[in-house]
């Protein structure tokens, strides 16, 4: 059975449906048909709104028909069709949506007075319709204008209808038993339509108030502010507000903006970018917006409460983007609104951000978090912001005046300027990789022209406030010159060494980019000029030339374009050959650039990092990017951002790094741990090592591969080892500190040297080996060539002849090792004796670790002794009288290239603790073999020994 | 704990005079049982007490053959002491000794302690070099001199004790800092570059 309420609902829907149809034909159709296409924008707007309202009204009609249909079905078959089939019950939300749309459309028409304006155009017609309208409405005074009548005609039936819904649904709910299955649905529908009633009331009130406001404002203000969808929420004329420090006669809170009116000026603030900050005293609250901060002050706390609540709710509603339902402040999300928001905004005020658009995260009225800032001139910044300023990593593109080229800064920023490590690619085909401070290059950095640039130039060194200053390496690719020395104000200034591609070296003092005063010149043929330089690098001045043969020429030198080099002086042909240490083996730069202060700009940031307690988020700013190759950095901005996100968990990773150090402190584990750290480009120590390698290559590779720089380089490598150990110790202290454990005591020099030479040097040496070894190679080139000649001569001897030639006592000859084929005599076999020792010694070049090289040497000796003991059939301890000839034999047969360079490198890199000891002895023995092979009577031709028969 | 001083000692002398035999005897005998690495009979170490110090002798043998003479500076650079050995039965070897002394005076490390050992004193019946000659010569150059027999272990200990005594004691200040000063090391470092 059906309840009477259902029948009542049916009747209600029938009436409403008919009413809607009448309204349509009587009001909406004529309104739309009223005018030809209006010419003014306002008119067009009205027409659009009316068209929209017509559409909404049609939807309303459709949904009513649908509801009606469901009711008829239910009443026709009450037994088979359940109560739940009613559209009003199961589709309450849908019905509600259609109503909301209609109300929105209707209130917009009200706000802009669309009915009145349109009706005015055909006032004659509407006067004729008055009677019909009156039938539709009740309580319409005959005196009222047509417009007002229309406004009512489009609202009143709906209000009444919804009200009836609520009444009937509530009654229906009551009539159903407590446990009726559909009761829930009925109650829900009643609530929905109850809420709809409240919403309609609020909407209509707001619309009326807004419409009234537009009428009251000056036309200029209205033009600036009026839009059909905007609603007034609060007006300072109702509850007075005093604004400070901005001045405002009137404050209007709309649902999307906050407006301050002062005279003719209209100041609008988007609510999405308004932050409300309550004041404690109760009569004030603060508002933050992107460009203004101001306070609202009130006479009494009540006013403050109302305004603050309204503004806060309005901000929430604006951020949600939907009208609160059923009334303002009834939103689902809790207030207050979030302090961090994501939004776009274009700055208007004069200043560095004028006309710039920021899109991204905000906090309390300032860009804060990730965002993009774009200036109208094409500048563009993507990155992190803090309190309105660039802070953290960011990429800035700055267009160049000409062509479509950009300067691209991928840097760390602090409070709006570049600070810390960065990479900048300039549109001018240059790249800077290094540190910044206050937006300028400062500290260590490399400025290099890209391969596309017409001239190759590179500076690797220190900067001060944007200028080259301090120790640095300048490379001029065009002239094939490399300057190693001190700089000031972007010029070579102070002590310096200049090396040319051709192998000419200068050392002297530079002033304003020119070498003047006393200095030396070493030419590639080992001639030496010592004297004064008066015109940069030209040989002009008073001095002395020492030729490789020992002749000296002392006098005044000059050179001119047409005369060539000329001199007036005394040639001394009686002098002794020159001291190698002052000519061919002379080492430049010693004592002029103390190794401790050479690369401060590289060690410095690491120390800062340690001093700051190794904060993971600063690792990149202080130690540089960990990007594997520069190629990767050339890719797009987004790529770099993505690549780098791995570092966002830098804090956690740093903990791991430090933890690992703590857990690997025993010698063996420590070695493993350091090896891993140094080989990783993510580890702070690995990063430091990479930067040091960069400086080393910049100094000593290419043009810098000059024998006169060997000492400078080896000093540097040893110092780097010390610094890396100090860096490790620094990290360890931080790790201990973080765990609250006792710090390590300061090491004494001896323990430190032991660790540096025994542990760090072997691990880091491979990173510098190729450049360093090249320098040794060049320095000992001459001796090595004599040695090679010696080896070549000796290789002509068969084994027994060579043993004899070297005066090895015959009872020590391992003749058993000579396996003879038929017709072969002992005297013809080569490369068989002491083979195990020879093969062992050859391994010396397979390692870069000086200690391992020495161990190879020790094993080689062991092999010699083993062979001798085997030959003699008993253990035999070799005195030097016997050992040295055997060793010379083994060395000559091992045919190791560049043995001189090897020996000197081992000696320089050897742990000083071995001095005088076993390893020193072995190395000295090897060196004496090397010396012996170079000179002696070995350069005699093999024919000499051929005539001598074995004794 | 007593401070250990490492002393580099270089052995010079003709081949066959028994340089390494003397050292072998010195190193084998007596209490130094902790295995220290050696290179056959060419490089040996031995630690002996001397006053309130321990002297660790790092003994470097050299090849006595005439042809290797020119290599000797590499071995004696940085030495605190040199033991120059001759064979009392061979006048020639005493001549060679004089050449070594001369060279050390000219090119050797400053303040090097020189000790002359007349070896094979067990064969005094075929002696060619009178002890008196050796003593006079040693006195003229301010060197220690003893006649030794590696075979019969005569005067070996005394030879090295003599050297120990002639090593100047450590500067107390340096001693305080460091515990052990490595004499050999320091001289080596200063003299390395000349070669």
TrEMBL record, chain A:
InterPro entries: Alsin, Alsin-like_PH, DBL_dom_sf, MORN, VPS9, VPS9_dom_sf. The keyword Repeat applies. SMART domains: MORN (SM00698). Its main location: cytoplasm. Residues 796-942 form the VPS9 domain. One of its GO terms (biological process) is endosomal transport. GO terms for cellular component: cytoplasmic vesicle. Pfam families: MORN, PH_alsin, VPS9. It comes from the Eukaryota. Keywords: Cytoplasm, GTPase activation, Repeat. Signal peptide: none annotated. The keyword Cytoplasm applies. One of its GO terms (molecular function) is small GTPase binding. It is found in: Cytoplasm. Acts as a guanine nucleotide exchange factor (GEF) for Rab5 GTPase. Regulates the ALS2-mediated endosome dynamics. Homodimer. Forms a heteromeric complex with ALS2. Interacts with ALS2 and RAB5A. This is ALS2 C-terminal-like protein. It comes from Rousettus aegyptiacus (Egyptian fruit bat).
UniProtKB/TrEMBL annotation, chain B:
The keyword Lipoprotein applies. Its main location: membrane. Residues 172-195 are annotated as: Disordered. Residues 185-195 have a biased composition (Polar residues). GO terms for cellular component: early endosome; phagocytic vesicle membrane. Transmembrane segments: none annotated. One of its GO terms (molecular function) is GTP binding. The keyword Lipoprotein applies. It is found in: Cytoplasmic vesicle, Phagosome membrane; Early endosome. Keywords: Cytoplasmic vesicle, Endosome, GTP-binding, Lipoprotein, Membrane, Nucleotide-binding, Prenylation. It comes from the Eukaryota. It is a lipid-anchor. Belongs to the small GTPase superfamily. Rab family. This is RAB31, member RAS oncogene family.
């Amino acid at each position: 059975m059906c309840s009477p309420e259902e029948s009542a609902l049916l009747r209600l829907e029938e009436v409403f449906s008919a009413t809607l149809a009448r309204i349509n034909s009587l009001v909406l159709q004529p309104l739309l048909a009223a005018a030809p296409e209006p010419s003014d924008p306002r008119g067009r707007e009205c027409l659009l709104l009316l068209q929209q309202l017509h559409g909404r009204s049609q939807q309303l009609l459709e949904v009513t028909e649908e509801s009606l249909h469901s009711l008829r079905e239910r009443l026709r078959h009450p037994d088979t069709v359940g109560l739940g089939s009613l559209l009003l019950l199961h589709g309450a939300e849908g019905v509600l949506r259609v109503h909301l749309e209609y109300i929105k459309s209707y209130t917009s028409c009200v706000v802009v007075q669309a009915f009145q304006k349109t009706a005015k155009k055909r006032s004659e017609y509407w006067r004729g319709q008055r009677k019909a309208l009156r039938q539709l409405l009740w309580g319409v005074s005959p005196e009222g204008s047509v417009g007002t009548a229309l406004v009512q005609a489009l609202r009143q039936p709906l209000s009444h209808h919804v009200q009836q819904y609520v009444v009937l649904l509530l009654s229906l709910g009551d009539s159903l038993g407590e446990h009726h299955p559909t009761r829930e649905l009925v109650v829900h529908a009643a609530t929905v339509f109850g809420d709809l009633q409240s919403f309609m009331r609020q909407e209509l009130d707001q619309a009326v108030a807004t419409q009234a406001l537009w009428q009251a404002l000056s036309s200029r203000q209205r033009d600036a502010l009026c839009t059909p969808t905007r609603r007034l929420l609060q007006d300072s004329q109702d509850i007075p507000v005093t604004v400070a420090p901005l001045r405002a006669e009137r404050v209007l809170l709309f649902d999307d903006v906050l407006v301050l009116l002062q005279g003719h000026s209209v100041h609008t603030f988007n609510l999405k970018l308004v932050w409300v900050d309550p004041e404690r005293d109760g009569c004030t609250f603060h508002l933050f917006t992107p460009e203004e901060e101001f306070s609202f002050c009130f006479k009494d706390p009540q006013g403050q409460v109302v305004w603050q609540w309204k503004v806060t709710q309005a901000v929430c509603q604006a951020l949600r983007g939907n009208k609160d339902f059923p009334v303002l402040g009834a939103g689902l999300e809790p207030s207050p609104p979030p302090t961090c928001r994501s939004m776009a905004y274009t700055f208007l005020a004069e200043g560095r951000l004028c006309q710039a658009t920021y899109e991204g995260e905000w906090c309390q009225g300032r860009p804060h978090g990730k965002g993009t800032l774009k200036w109208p001139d094409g500048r563009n910044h993507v990155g992190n912001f803090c309190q309105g300023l660039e802070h953290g990593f960011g990429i800035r593109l700055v267009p160049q005046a000409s062509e479509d080229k950009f300067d691209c800064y991928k840097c760390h920023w602090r409070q709006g300027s570049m600070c810390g490590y960065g990479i900048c690619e300039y549109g001018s085909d240059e790249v800077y990789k290094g540190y910044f401070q206050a937006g300028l290059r400062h500290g260590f950095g490399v400025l290099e022209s890209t391969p596309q640039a017409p001239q190759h130039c590179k500076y690797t060194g220190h900067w001060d406030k944007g200028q080259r200053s301090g120790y640095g390496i300048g490379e001029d690719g065009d002239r094939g010159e490399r300057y190693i020395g001190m700089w000031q104000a972007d010029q070579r200034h102070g002590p310096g060494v200049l090396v040319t591609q051709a192998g000419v070296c200068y050392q002297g003092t530079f002033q304003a980019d020119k070498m003047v005063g006393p200095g030396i010149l070493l030419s590639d043929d080992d001639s030496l000029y010592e004297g004064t330089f008066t015109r940069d690098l030209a040989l002009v001045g008073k001095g002395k030339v020492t030729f490789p043969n020992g002749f000296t020429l002392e006098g005044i030198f000059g050179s001119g374009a047409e005369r060539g080099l000329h001199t007036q002086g005394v040639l001394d042909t009686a002098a002794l050959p020159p001291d190698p240490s002052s000519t061919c083996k002379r080492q430049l730069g010693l004592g002029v650039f103390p190794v401790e202060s050479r690369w401060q700009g590289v060690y410095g940031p690491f120390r800062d990092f340690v001093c700051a307690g190794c904060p993971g988020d600063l690792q990149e700013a202080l130690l540089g990017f960990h990007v594997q190759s520069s190629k990767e950095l050339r890719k797009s901005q987004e790529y770099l951002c993505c690549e780098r996100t791995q570092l966002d968990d830098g804090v956690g990773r740093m903990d791991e790094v430090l933890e690992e150090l703590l857990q690997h402190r025993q010698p063996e584990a420590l070695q493993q741990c350091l090896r891993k750290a140094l080989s990783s480009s993510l580890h702070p120590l690995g990063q430091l090592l990479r930067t040091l390698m960069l400086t080393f290559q910049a100094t000593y590779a290419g043009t810098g591969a000059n024998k006169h720089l060997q000492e400078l380089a080896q000093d540097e490598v040893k110092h780097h080892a010390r610094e890396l150990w100090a860096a490790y110790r620094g990290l360890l202290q931080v790790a201990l500190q973080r765990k609250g454990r006792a710090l390590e005591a300061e090491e004494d020099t001896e323990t430190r040297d032991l660790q540096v030479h025994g542990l760090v040097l072997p691990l880091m040496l491979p990173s510098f080996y190729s450049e360093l070894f090249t320098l040794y190679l060049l320095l000992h080139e001459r001796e090595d060539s004599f040695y090679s000649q010696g080896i070549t001569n000796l290789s002509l001897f068969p084994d027994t002849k060579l043993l004899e030639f070297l005066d090895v006592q015959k009872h020590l000859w391992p003749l058993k090792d000579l396996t003879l084929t038929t017709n072969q005599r002992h005297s013809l076999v080569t490369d068989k004796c002491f083979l195990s020792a020879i093969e062992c010694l050859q391994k010396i070049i397979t390692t870069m670790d000086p200690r391992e090289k020495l161990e190879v040497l020790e094993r080689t000796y062991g092999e010699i002794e083993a062979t001798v003991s085997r030959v003699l059939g008993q253990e035999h301890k070799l005195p030097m009288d016997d050992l040295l000839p055997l060793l010379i034999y083994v060395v000559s047969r091992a045919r190791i290239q560049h043995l001189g360079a090897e020996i000197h490198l081992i000696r320089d890199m050897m742990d000083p603790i071995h001095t005088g000891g076993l390893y020193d002895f072995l190395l000295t023995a090897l060196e004496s073999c090397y010396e012996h092979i170079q000179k002696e009577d070995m350069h005699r031709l093999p024919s000499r020994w051929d005539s001598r028969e074995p004794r | 704990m007593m401070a250990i001083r490492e002393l580099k000692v270089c052995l010079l002398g003709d081949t066959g005079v028994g340089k390494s035999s003397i050292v072998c005897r010195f190193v084998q005998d007596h209490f130094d049982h902790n295995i220290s690495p050696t290179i056959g009979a060419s490089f040996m170490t031995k630690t002996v007490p001397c006053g309130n110090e321990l002297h660790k002798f790092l003994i470097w043998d050299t090849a006595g053959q005439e042809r290797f003479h020119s290599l000797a500076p590499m071995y004696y650079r940085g030495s605190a002491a040199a033991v120059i050995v001759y064979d009392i039965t061979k006048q020639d070897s005493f001549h060679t000794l004089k050449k070594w002394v001369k060279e050390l005076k000219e090119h050797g490390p400053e303040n090097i302690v020189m000790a002359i050992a007349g070896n094979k004193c067990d064969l005094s019946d075929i002696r060619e070099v009178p002890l008196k000659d050796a003593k006079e010569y040693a006195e003229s150059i301010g060197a220690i001199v003893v006649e030794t027999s590696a075979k019969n272990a005569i005067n070996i200990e005394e030879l090295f004790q003599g050297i120990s005594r002639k090593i100047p004691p450590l500067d107390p200040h340096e001693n305080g800092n460091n515990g052990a000063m490595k004499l050999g090391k320091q001289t080596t470092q200063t003299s390395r570059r000349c070669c």
